[in-house]
Structure formats: structure tokens, C-alpha cells
Amino acid sequence: MIYVIICICVVLFIFLSYLFVKTYQLSGYNVPAFLKNVFDLKLAYGDKNKLVFTKRIIRFYIFLTILSFFLFFLVNFYIKNIYLKIFDSLLIFLCLPLCIVIVHYISLPVELLIKQYYISKAIRKLKKKKIIKIGITGSFGKTSTKNILKEILEKKYKVCASPKNYNTEMGLSKTILEYLDDHNILIAEMGARHKGDIKILAKMVEPDYGIITTIGPQHLETFKSLETIEDTKFELAENLKQDGVMIFNGDSNSTKKLYDRFDGKKYLVCDKNGFSYAEDIEINSRGSKFKLYIDGKQFDIETELLGKCNIDNIVTASTVAYLLEVPREDIENAVKELQPTKHRLEIIKNNACTVIDDSYNSNIIGCKEALDTLNMFKGKKIVITPGMVELGNEQSEINFKFGGMIADVADYIIIMNNVNKNEILSGAIAHNFKKENIFFAETRKKQKELLEKIVSKDCVILFENDLPDNYK
């Protein structure tokens, strides 16, 4: 009997530990966020996200396994009653989230030492390099601006840019240690969830040029207010290299405020009264065309990229390239050759329909851009979305507004997950959207079944946002 109990406990441990450790990882290794997800039953039970077995997670799993099995065998050694053994074993598994918290703090000194080792090593390597360093931050458009800037600058320079969303201390350390070689320029994307995060990254990189893109209500659960977000993004400007240059997106009110606040060398872009801006904009389902003015000089721009946000990103990136003396013809050609970034207003066409993949993440500005893009197409329009999260007290209001925006464009809505279900539904109905054209899906399988029922030839499907597994 005891061997049966042991086998059951091992199976339970493998299943539950995977579930809780994945939730811990998706919570950013943050104990308060992890516990909140556990208490809210936002466990990472789905298959959209896999547990990434990084070296840190492997070390964590070893500590967790040792602690859990030590508790299991220690308790079962002294308990003789078979029913008490079963009860106590189940109790240990119910306490698994507490074990994860304990292991977090046990392993934290080790992780901090390892983290500091790699950061110090990256800083030493970077200090030996005589290269131009560019830091990019903002609430929206960081990654797209980084990718566009890299493509343009590579017409003249050898450029290393932080890949994917490597925008933390360890992400930038990995970029410097593994990717930076004989390059002329380093582009470092800088992300933040708490005040002080950008300051740490800027001090680490010491950028010669800083870019602040659009600022808006993103990660309000941790920042709490737009003012805190503004102050955090401004940390890039405050920690530039001496005589560094700042570029601010003047199309964003918050970023424009930071432009006025900065006393150093600076340029305002995406504003007709600024250093650079776009005019005579033409956007259709095939791409965008506009005149770009930088320092009074005209550039004729054509691109496959869609959306006003991408035009702002092109203006910003082209301005930095201009300041770094990339020739006009090279800027125009590089922009013409740009391909959409994966999952960011990416157009995918097949024989049956057109898909607009904007699933990477979502914000109210990006949602409007995506819906404007959808509206350019002819045919039946379907929007699939779970709405937006991490918006603090404003989440309900913003998703209600989003539901109304969808209703003004789409013919059908599939609401994924339950987290914003009622708000999106209410917002759509408030705009007189037919309730019978609104569907709900908690899984991708259900989503597929619904699509098979409503998809017809030449329809257009917008995927707006995709939440991780810890959201129901």
C-alpha cells in the first residue's frame, strides 16, 4: 500500500509542481504576483505557454524537489496510520505554493550572485567596445522601433540589437555577452514594470542616444499611475551618457511632456512643429505611403507596414538614422524593404481568408490601430480577442470602450477567456452590436470550432492579443 501512495504522490508532484512553477515563471518570478495568481486561481493550466527550462528554473526545480520529498518522507516516516499518511501527503501538496515561496527565498541569494556575475561581465565587455549605444523605452512601439531602426542602420553600420523582448538586465546582459561582436552600434530595448527599472538598465548601457516612444496606461497594476510611468521612462533621459541625445515621440502627450522637461540635446519627432514628421499619409490594405520631413528635407516613403503607429515608428527610426548620417536613399530603400514584425499587425493571406495577426500584446492605442487596419479590408470581419490586462483600476472601463470600438467595425466577435468577457460584451451591446454575433471560447479548440461555423471565403480575421495560461 505504501508503494501505491508513493507512486500517487510522485505523479501528483510532477503535475502540480509543473502547474505552480509555470505560474511562478509567468508571474515574472515575483512572489506577490505569484500568490495573487494562486489566490485568484489564475493558474497556468493551459497549453499556450510551456514551462521554459532555463538554468534558473532547473536550479529552482532541484531545490523544490529536495524540499518537497524531504517533507514527504520525513512526515511519512513518523506516521504509522495509513489514512494519516494519505491525509498528510495531500496536505503537503496543498502547501506546494508555500513550498515555492520558501524555495524562492532560499535560492534568491544564489540567483542574485549569478545575476550580478553576468551583469558585471557584460558591463566590462561593453566598456571595452568603442561603439554607439542606443537605448529605447516607452509603453508602446519599443520592439517595432528597434527592429525598424536596426534594418535602416544596417545600410551603413554593423548593428547588434537585443533580440525578441530581451529588455531586462539579464536580457541585455545575454545580448552583450552572446550577440555583441565587432559591431558599430548596439540597440538596447529597455522594459519596465516598476519605478527604477529603466535607471538600472540605462546605467548599465550608458546610451549615447535615447528614444522614448509612445507612453500610455500599460502595466498599471504595478505602476499604479500614468505619472509613475512617465517618471520611469524619463529615467532613460536622466541617465544618458554625457552629451547624449534624446529623441521624443511628439504624437504622445506624455512623451511630449518629457520633451519639455528635458534640458539636454533633444529632438521632437512625429510632430509638425518638431524636427521630423510625416505628411500626405496614404494607408490601404497593401501598405503605407507618405512624405517624411527631417530637418526640412523631404523623403518619399513607401512601406508594407500598416497603421499610424508604424508610421510613427518609421519616422522615429529614420530620424535617428539621419542623425547618424545614413544617406537619404538608404533610408528610403530600407523602409521599402521592411517586413512586418511577427504578431504585430502581420498580414497573413491564404486561399480562404486574410488574417491580421496582432496577438503579441495589446493596448488601447494599438487596438484602435488594428481595428482601423481591419476596416480597410472588404468582406466579413471577425475579431478574436481576450481584451487587455494589467490595467489596474482602469481595466474594466478600457475593455468596455474596446468592446464598443470592435462593434463599430466587426461583423462577429469571439471573446477568448473570461477575464474581460462581461466588459467587452457590454461595450459591444452598448453600440447596438447583435448579441447573436458574439461568441465565447475558453480554449483554442473551441475557438477553432466557432471559426469553422462563421468563416466564409474572403473574410478577414483579426487576432488582437493573446493572454498567457495564467489568465482564464
Q: Would you give an account of this structure?
A:
The protein has 472 residues and is α/β, with parallel strands linked by helices. It is 49% helix and 17% strand. A six-stranded parallel sheet has the order 2-3-1-4-5-6, sandwiched between helices. A six-stranded mixed sheet has the order 10-11-15-12-13-14, with helices on both faces. β10 and β11 (353-358) form a beta hairpin. The mean pLDDT is 87.
What's this entry about, in short?
With 472 residues, the protein is of the alpha/beta class. It has helices spanning 2-26, 31-39, 55-78, 82-94, 96-128, 142-153, 169-179, 197-205, 220-223, 226-238, 253-261, 308-323, 328-336, 364-375, 395-407, 421-430, 444-454, and strands spanning 132-137, 159-161, 185-189, 209-212, 245-249, 265-269, 276-284, 287-294, 297-303, 346-349, 353-358, 381-385, 412-416, 438-441, 459-464.
Q: Strands across the major sheet, in which order?
A: 2-3-1-4-5-6
C-alpha geometry:
globular
Main beta-sheet strand count, sense and barrel state: 6 strands, parallel
- Poorly predicted spans: none
Helix content: 40-55%
Oligomer: single chain
Separate helix tally: 17
Distance between the termini: 38 Å
**Overall mean confidence score, pLDDT:** 87
Strand content: 15-25%
What's the total count of β strands? 15
Q: Name the structural class.
A: alpha/beta
Radius of gyration: 25 Å
